[in-house]
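Possible regression after last week's pipeline update?

I re-ran a chain I had predicted before the update to compare outputs. Posting the input and the new output here so someone can diff against the archived version. Not blocking, just want to make sure nothing changed silently.
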Amino acid sequence: MKSETKTCQNCKSQFTIEPDDFDFYNKIKVPPPTFCPECRLRRRFMFRNERILYKRKCDLCKKEVISIYSQDKDYKVYCPPCWWSDKWDAQEYGREYDFSLSFFEQFDELMHKVPHVALIGIHKTLVNSEYTNQVGSLKNCYLITNSDYDERCYYASGLEHSFDCFDMYNSTHNELCYDSLYLAKCNRVFFSQNSEACVDSLFLKDCIGCVNCFGCINLRNQQYHIFNKKFSPEGYKEELRRLGFDSGSYISSEAFHSRAKEFWSRFPNKFIHARRNKNISGDYIYNSKNTHDSFDVNGAEDSRYCTLLMAPGTKAAYDYTEYGDSAELIYETQLAGLQIYNIKFSHLVWSGSRNVEYSYLTPQNCSNIFGCVSLRNQNYCILNKKYKEGEYFDLRDKIIQHMQDHSYKNKIGHTYTYGEFFPPDISPFCYNETTAQEFFTLNEKESMSQGYQWKGPETRNYQISLQSEDLPDHIRSVSDAISKEIISCAHQGTCNENCTTAFQIISAELQFYKKMNLPLPRLCPNCRHSQRLKQRNPLKLWTRKCQCAGEHSDNKVYKNTAEHFHSTNHCSNEFKTSYSPEREEIVYCEKCYQSEVV
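New output (post-update):
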């Protein structure tokens, strides 16, 4: 089959469906998509509220609970113990399929009837970690999300197997690390990114195996370097004193972080953040094979358009967002994983489920279900109603035909038939409550013009007692009484980052800052998270040429330190990269980059 160019229903841009794509769609028996890959990802993200938490009452036990659903949401919400209990049965909400209504109208009605769980995660594995979401196996953690197997960690997203870490993003196997992203196997590393197996270091970028390094980039297995210059152990300490750096000072830390970023800009970046792969494209990809146009993926094979699959073992998946872990034949699905097979157009499907379509929150051992909500350990169900095997397949075929013949059209004219993920109209969340706002940021006017819901600010029942600009500059000047203050966020709610306008310094956090000699933050946790996200590359690719001009970079800022395979000629390699052409960073192909850092 030849390639085919289509126009996206939403953004009107053109996108191409390749022969391999058609092979996949034929294999799983679905029509090709009518939205471009980016709009498909944005749409899935609009069903994912990872970080915005509220207090509300459990609709079963009536106790107050932390929830991803605000009190004004017209959904039935149970606390995790009640939702996972045997006190209710999701099949009691089962209903006949009505061929006079569209499928998505009926599914939306079911969504509003069946109880939802207040927080996503394995609550029985959480110890003193109530303010968390999309998590498992945590102990003494606070405000961390999409994370597992952590202890005494705070204000993080995508943190795995870590201890005593604060303000982290997509990092694993770390200890005593702070305000960093994409770290692995690091200890006492602060204000850094994309580094592995480093110790006692600050302001690192793309470093591996470095100890006592400061402001460095592209180093491998080095010690006592400051801005990539080698020092003796005594000279290292003396140079930091001469520079006037004091890690406990907010002014000093901010100034040197800015200085480090300026220094980093003089060096080449590899076109992709990736290790141990074969035949891949995208960014932040590890241990994968034949996986393309994907981001934040570990251990995937024969897949495309995947995002946030950090648990290895994904095979044959398209448009799959979050989790993984022995998942095969997955399409247009989000937050699903753990030995699942043939899952399509679904959200929140886990643990041993198979042959699931258009379903929401089916956490374990469901097979052959269609259009179901909050089912567990069931098979042959449609709209939560149980059928005999033959009846199920006959009705399923009729519903698919009905979806194709009687499409659902939303208020801005987009058409949804069988083969598309849920329309944003039926998401339980407003646009600015979801991950879509983090990666595809809109303001309220832009969101409403595109037909998306928008959540206005919550009423704040607190009074600010201390302005962020009045915080002590140095951690040594901070007393334990600071934990009683309500501190204003420096953004004061003027950003599009779900600013909470104020925050507190909790006791464990303060002790960490004092122990590590780190200054108090000036932003609320949500705004700090957004600032970290701005340091990573976007979920988008551009075709570019290597910027190695032979003896130096194209802009002549960087002079090569070794002879490259193309000698003094300009490198001819092209690649797909998440560095857009207008960005200032120097971008090299892998061969040219490796010549400079190894």
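Follow-up from reviewer: compared with the archived run. The mean pLDDT is 97. Marking as no regression found.
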